[in-house]
Amino acid sequence: RTRIQKRKRKSVSFYTAFSYAKVLNILHDIIQLKKIKFNHFHKHFKYNNKASKHGIINFV
Predict the structure, then answer these.
(1) Nearest to residue 56, comparing CAs of 40, 34, 25?
(2) Which residue among 3, 43, 45, 52 is buried most deeply as judged by most CB within 10 Å?
(3) What is the pTM assigned to this prediction?
(4) Contact in structure between 39 and 59 (CB atoms under 8 Å)
(5) CA distances from 10 to 14, 15, 24, 30, 37 (A)
């Protein structure tokens, strides 16, 4: 019994670590997309009050 439980725990922790890494990867992609979008947006409008309120300027 104990051996099986230990094995299960190991596989679960590995799975959670893998999914966590996946989520981090997705978050990184989203931040990169925001950077690109804001840089493109910044070219057209020198300053936007809404963007600064939401802290999007921090991405640049």
Answers:
(1) 34
(2) 52
(3) 0.37
(4) no
(5) 6, 9, 21, 30, 41
Q: What DSSP assignment string belongs to 22-44?
A: HHHHHHHHHHHHHHHHHHHHHHH
Listed in sequence order, the residues at least 6 apart from 38 whose beta carbon sits closer than 8 Å to its beta carbon are 51, 56, 57, 59, 60
Cβ–Cβ < 8 Å for 11, 29: no
The pair of structure tokens assigned to 46 is 């020198």
Domains of the chain by residue range: 2-59
